[in-house]
Amino acid sequence: MARFIYTLAVLALLPWAVLHLLWRGRRQPEYLRHWGERFGFFAATNVQDSAAPTIWLHAVSVGETRAAQPLVAALREHYPDHRILFTHMTPTGRATSEALFGDSVERIYLPYDTPWAVRRFLRHFRPEFGLIMETELWPNLIATCRQEYIPLRLVNARLSERSERRYAKFPALTRGALQGLTAIGAQSASDAARLEALGAQRVIVTGNIKFDVATPQQQIELGREFRASWDNRPVWLAASTRGGEEALILDAWKKVMRSGIPLRDGAGGAALLVLVPRHPQRFDEVARLVTERGFRLQRRSEKTAIEPATQILIGDSMGEMFAWYASADIAFIGGSLLDFGSQNLIEAAACGTPILIGPSTRNFAEAAREAIACGAARSIRDADDLATQVNSMLADAGARQAMGSAGQAFAERHRGATARTLEMITPAGR
Predict the structure, then answer these.
(1) pTM surpassing 0.70?
(2) Cα–Cα distances in angstroms (integers) from residue 188 to residues 163, 185, 281, in the given order
(3) Which CATH class is domain 217-413?
(4) Is residue 64 among the annotated active site residues?
(5) What is the pLDDT of residues 189-215, one digit of tens each?
């Protein structure tokens, strides 16, 4: 009965979903494409050997897709005769999949969670088994996988206290969805406990796969090239910022600039802020905000040399986050200054970049706590505190070096989640 009521609610919301696609499509035309896939209608596959058995991996957007890299590599090694099908919910997730994996995987949008749409999806692609990255619970999808005898596992699963409270409002629906999964690999013991409290069974703590994402040497070299081309200026990075945060960061930057950053020996200009918004559709909006505030601005997309008078560089590119981390003296992790739950701090730690992170960390709660505890990161309260910490750290090379080393050691200690996840998948997945 709970799932029946849920299905009625999904049907009632479908007109809103169409309007949402149209509205988002005004700023991001990719939302206007591939609509048939969202309703369970698919073109012929684009993989050469369409008869090959299929492994299906769902990664809702950018973060989940990037995190899946080590898992995809492991799956290719253990299942060399299989094709890999990615499903996404956002165009940016789909674009990230294309940038990372090219034509070696197939990618589509996951259909909306109506019984007939997900049944068409499963019968069209006939996956041997499915893997859902992090926490995406779609009751009809999970139930239909069971009906079609398709093992479905939740991997790299996380569940914040806020999400637990939200799911707990629908206990029968949530319990049914969780118990319909073949197994769950949780990021931490806390995530596992919250999932079990909601009714999950067969939960294993496998760790966070994001620690296993390899630091691409090509990106590190690019970051060094950035740094050399900026005449070794002091650089702090505001990475993956969200709406509303950029204004606060710019206020903090004004305070830092007024304080007069001490320049290191050989530096050829004042400190530089590299500002990288999380969502590409906001690049122009953020650039306008920077200009309106009176800062001297350049954009990465212009591909021109950074002038000494430039105060802010907008990182309006895709797939270069590791390079930005490698170029920076300090990285502030976006999504943490306002209540977004934080973006990924693990990549910065792996690059040896000192980390500043705001009070909102629920998406990476355990990683943030451990990074702060081991000295890889510092917690900041608000924009004023951000300005104070940036000013202090840019003047203290010894502190930055110690934090960077602590971050690399922290990232190294937590590797191995991919192997544990594969152990959970392989016995029943073949």
Answers:
(1) yes
(2) 15, 9, 33
(3) alpha beta
(4) yes
(5) 999 999 999 999 999 999 999 999 989
